[in-house]
Amino acid sequence: MNKALKNPITYMAFIIPTLALYAVFFVYPVIVSFYYGFFQWDGITDKVFTGFDNFARLWQDEVFRKALANNFYFMAFSLAVNIPLVFLISIMISKARRMRDFYKSAVFVPVVISTATVAILFGVLYNYDSGLVNQLIRLAAPDDWAREWLSDPKLAMLSILIANAWQNIGFFIVLCLAAIMNIPKEIVEAAKIDGVNGWQETWTLTLPLIRPVLFVMLLLTVSGTMKVLDIVQIMTNGGPFQSTEVMSTYMLKVGFRSMELGYGSAIGVAMFLIILVLTGVLQRITKREEVQY
């Protein structure tokens, strides 16, 4: 067994299939998208080389600019609301003396539900006539306070953000909670001996020590929100009036409905480059933040 583990062929036998799958399902599609981005093509007739016209068209496309802004809105909401909420709930669960395992399981349940199910569920909850949200509003306020949550351009994106947060926040809570519980008890006890209260412990001890995990959460949030697709596609399909259009939904419409595969590929390349830049910046920041117990 030891001889097998020391043999490089053993490692290659496990690595090569993984690399092959990665190349087929990630590297190859990226290369092909870059290639098709330089052509005007409907998927049937011959491709026509257009150079950088598709990429230049992006910055003149009002719908693409709106979709890009919606992606950044999605990201800003997740960073400003979801991450602080995750930290707060994680602290509360870590302080619980009873039923801690139940709380961890309860917050994680939405994560295992498929996005399609979550989108349909919230679509029912947001229904104007019979949805639970409007029913509760009618009980506590005048009837005209009820809203068409997914049909109102001012409320549709917020409604999707709430549904997305409900589904994904549990994963980050478990991740953050694991980091909090991993803090050595000796450090916490020493801080209490020095007279540190609960509030000071949270902000001067817990938060700095779990900073690497928070950066992982930021990285996952940024990359996830910039390529969000399924929940928007199912709940609103980018409407009403492109108020919830994101780059992924717009790419699908352009590439497979309008049959402009070249321009759709250019949108996909733009998404890839934007995510690459944002995650690269975050990774450089992460390398500067090292925590030692």
UniProtKB/TrEMBL annotation:
Pfam families: BPD_transp_1. GO terms for biological process: transmembrane transport. One of its GO terms (cellular component) is plasma membrane. Residues 68-282 form the ABC transmembrane type-1 domain. Coiled coil: none annotated. The chain crosses the membrane at residues 12-38, 72-93, 105-126, 155-181, 261-282. It is found in: Cell membrane. The keyword Transmembrane applies. It is a multi-pass membrane protein. Keywords: Cell membrane, Membrane, Transmembrane, Transmembrane helix, Transport. Its main location: membrane. It comes from the Bacteria. PANTHER family: ABC TRANSPORTER PERMEASE PROTEIN (PTHR30193), INNER MEMBRANE ABC TRANSPORTER PERMEASE PROTEIN YCJO (PTHR30193:SF37). Belongs to the binding-protein-dependent transport system permease family. This is Sugar ABC transporter permease. It comes from Paenibacillus arenilitoris.
